[in-house]
Write a structure and sequence with these properties.
Elements: E1 3-8, H1 12-24, E2 25-31, E3 42-43, E4 55-58, H2 63-73, E5 80-82, E6 97-100, E7 103-107, E8 112-115, H3 118-129, E9 141-146, H4 152-158, E10 163-169, H5 173-184, E11 193-196, E12 199-201, E13 205-211, E14 229-237, H6 238-251, E15 255-260, H7 266-275, E16 284-290, H8 295-303, E17 307-313, E18 317-323
Parallel strand pairs: 1-2, 1-4, 2-3, 4-5, 9-10, 9-15, 10-11, 12-14, 15-16
Antiparallel strand pairs: 6-7, 7-8, 13-14, 16-18, 17-18
Amino acid sequence: MKKKAVVYGIGRMYGQLKYAIEDKYEVVGYVDKYLTRDDGTLWKPEELLDKEFDCVLITPCGKVGIMQELIRLGIPQDKLIPYYGENKYIKIEDDKIRLEDDKIIVTDEKYRLELKTYSDDAVFHEVFIQRGYDIHLTDDYAVLDIGMNVGFVSVFYAMNESVKAVYGFEPFPQTYYQAVNNVKNCGGGAEKVHTFNIGLGNRNTEVAVNYDANKSECMSLVRNNAGESREKVQLKDAAEVLASIIKKEQEEGRKILCKMDCEGSEYDVFDSMDKQGLIDQVDVYLIEWHYRDDDSLVDCLTKYGYTVMKSYDYGAFGKIIAWK
């Protein structure tokens, strides 16, 4: 018999999870502060106290705050499920995804991740549920994770047997130390990961930028950020940093995969690598570009003989995959 579930949040994320939820649960009602339904099944959070259900599936990003609010209202914590979706790798069972104090803990036999913010929820869903960086690798690889954020992509690749080394670069100290903590808890994969508290670009300098931990996935070194906190970060010339790493890994017989998600700095990284002849030393690129368009990146890659595929293009950002 299916468990009776209330779905909290019927927006964009619910749209992606709807069929998985209905396949496993009997949905008896919905909660949403901003949207409406016409069938009488949409309730206010406080109305849950008078309803019968087995669990509440929290679907929006920002799950920690929502769960804390429901607990304050008197909803038992053991009925609250931070629901990211399920696949053959991630199952909502055995208390593997749970709230602990001010964070959500996701555990597996290979890793333990901490999700604290709206941004963490979004990135976890992209990496571990949507499998946005899941490429079938048959040769030995070293991964350059430029824009490491809180370390989810680095952990994801560290668990891949074909990946022998990961180099993660994250300029914002608070985000970086959360990444280090996630990496050290990924079991045997932790020894593969080398982390650097720097940003990469086309020059060596120190910059001061606004910072908001709740939006860490959107923090940029080239645009004004939201947030009242002011952070000084170290910016290094990409080619100067990457040249020795690429050389070392190639001498070990490994191919290079470069993932970039660095909120507008990807153009400066490419500029530096192109000037120093490093672009074609990478075998596979996974690039999320921001704020401009991908024309200059695609032109540079095709110049070096790469096959380029556009994974998506939303105007202000998109993803391209390139290989040769």
